[in-house]
């Protein structure tokens, strides 16, 4: 009898303990529960509503919204869900701090939903906004309302992907530090200039423009883009359509620049034009204070084309750059790599990649010989060189030879070598080790 009673007591104790643990969480104030839930995606937050009556409406008070239309079986259900959620937030006077929406649809259904939602969430407390649209038919773009630019005083991070931005006259985003503009359509280049130049605290900017051939004729080519961002720290320039690119920023603050597609086919044609040459020269001078740079093979091809002109303006000196990542086409490697390095006198780390190189055409590339010019950085500062996608072809071996024979303070040459045949790797390493080295402390590493 005593044994059965003790078992019953133990069971009651266990049940009470479990209930006590449950009540400990459920009895937390709404503000603390919302803070805990804010670390979860919205679809996970919604599931907490079935835990108990206490949790039924707590999720509606969470100040974050992170949803993708792909999580819903029907697009209309997705739209209806967000409409109801935002309507509840307005009724409860609950402001959203972070909004991330990924929208995928196949037709022109409800083209005003994004504008409606941004109008609803635009408030002085909004910190982060990320809107990504993926459309089967790009003619039906979602439009961004004016409320985004004038009602979000504390917005810190903004990302807009494949949306339409109308004419802008006023932009007030005093706290914005990070801006990502990807494949959007702008009413004019002037509107884009206003948007990227107005935030006084902007530190990280990425602009990826849609090309005319990949979009629709609704896109208008303008006279140019002016970036006026005195506190800018990171810039990715991926716009080869605008006629001019001008950056007015504090060169001391600029730390990283990714020069992807800055110059287009029209720039190649007009390179002998004085205005065009001044634009090219001015662009590179405006980023000459940067500390880290990445240059695409397309940009290097343009610089090589420019170099062949009698009125060629050499690149400025990038004295602060310690890390450089650059890609070359093999066709302009022999002259452009030594020429480029002359503009980086204090370079410490170089990551190099050869594009569109077919190892099966080794015979045609066998006569590639790099210029005998030895840049200042090879004699005084360059400590690390990494060659990506390295193979045993003559061009790659010539590049490795150039750095081993000419780099006085080089500590390591890293070769990103991909080969399933171990013996081939050993043979290549044996050839490299046999090459003379100007730096006695240099190591050759395969990875």
UniProtKB/TrEMBL annotation:
Signal peptide: none annotated. This is BnaA02g05850D protein. It comes from the Eukaryota. Residues 22-75 form the F-box domain. It comes from Brassica napus.
């Amino acid at each position: 009898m005593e044994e059965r009673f003790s078992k019953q007591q133990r069971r009651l104790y266990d049940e009470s303990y479990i209930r006590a643990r449950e009540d400990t969480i459920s009895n937390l104030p709404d503000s603390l529960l919302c803070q805990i839930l804010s670390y979860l995606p919205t679809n996970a937050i919604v599931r907490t509503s079935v835990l108990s009556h206490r949790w039924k409406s707590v999720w509606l008070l969470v100040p974050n919204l992170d949803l993708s239309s792909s999580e819903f079986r029907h697009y209309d259900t997705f739209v209806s869900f967000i409409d109801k959620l935002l309507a509840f937030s307005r009724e409860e006077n609950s402001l959203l701090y972070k909004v991330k929406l990924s929208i995928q649809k196949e037709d022109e259904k409800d083209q005003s939903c994004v504008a409606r939602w941004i109008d609803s969430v635009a408030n002085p407390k909004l910190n982060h906004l990320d809107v990504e649209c993926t459309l089967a038919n790009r003619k039906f773009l979602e439009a961004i309302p004016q409320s985004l630019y004038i009602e979000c005083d504390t917005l810190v991070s903004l990302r807009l992907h494949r949306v339409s931005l109308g004419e802008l006259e006023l932009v007030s985003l005093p706290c914005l530090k990070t801006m990502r503009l990807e494949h959007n359509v702008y009413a004019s280049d002037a509107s884009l200039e206003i948007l990227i130049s107005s935030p006084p605290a902007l530190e990280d900017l990425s602009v990826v423009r849609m090309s005319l051939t990949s979009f629709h004729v609704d896109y208008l080519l303008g006279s140019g883009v002016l970036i006026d961002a005195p506190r800018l720290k990171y810039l990715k320039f991926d716009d080869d359509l605008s006629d001019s690119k001008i950056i007015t920023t504090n060169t001391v603050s600029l730390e990283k620049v990714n020069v992807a597609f800055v110059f287009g086919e029209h720039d190649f044609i007009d390179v002998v034009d004085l205005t065009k040459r001044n634009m090219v020269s001015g662009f590179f001078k405006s980023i000459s204070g940067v500390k880290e740079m990445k240059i695409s093979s397309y940009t290097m091809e343009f610089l090589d084309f420019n170099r062949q002109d009698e009125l060629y303006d050499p690149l400025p000196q990038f004295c602060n750059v310690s890390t450089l990542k650059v890609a070359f086409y093999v066709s302009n490697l022999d002259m452009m790599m030594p020429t480029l390095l002359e503009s980086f006198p204090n370079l410490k780390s170089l990551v190099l990649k050869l594009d569109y190189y077919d190892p099966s055409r080794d015979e045609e590339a066998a006569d590639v010989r790099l210029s005998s010019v030895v840049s200042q950085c090879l004699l005084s500062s360059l400590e690390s060189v990494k060659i990506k996608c390295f193979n045993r072809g003559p061009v790659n071996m010539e590049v490795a030879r150039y750095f081993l024979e000419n780099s006085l303070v080089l500590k390591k040459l890293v070769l990103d070598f991909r080969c399933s045949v171990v013996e081939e790797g050993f043979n290549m390493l044996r050839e490299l080790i046999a090459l003379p080295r100007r730096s006695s402390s240099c190591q050759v590493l395969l990875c």
